[in-house]
Amino acid sequence: MTKQKLPSQKFKTIIRTVKIFLGIVFFLALTFTGFNLLAKSIYDRKDCKRFNIDNIELRTHTDIPAVLKSECNCNGNIKVSKFVIDSSRVNISDYTVNNNFEKSGDLFIKKGERNDTKWNASLNPHTNELLITIEYK
Question: Hey, where are the domains in the chain?
């Protein structure tokens, strides 16, 4: 009967380190994939139910700040959302600059178009109402 050699302590440490490294890589890949799937799910929503603000922010690249009130109506491929911004927590002037709104008469306007979305945003600085219309293509 022959004696089997026991693996050296150094070899055990290397194997354990490789297992930990592979576990971390797997965990990070799974987390990254899950995050991307969630973001895609939010982006693809075309309703006013869950993740409405997130959907608007992803499609328009416009931050929706603290709000006092919101309304949303969706009819087929058109979504209209209205927000009353909480001016006690949000400086409207800074908000318009940081989100690239342009002054047009009494309103601040921002609009854009992508291959799957056309949108318009208008902010009334007197009433703090932000109106966003999204047309899904």
Answer: 45-136
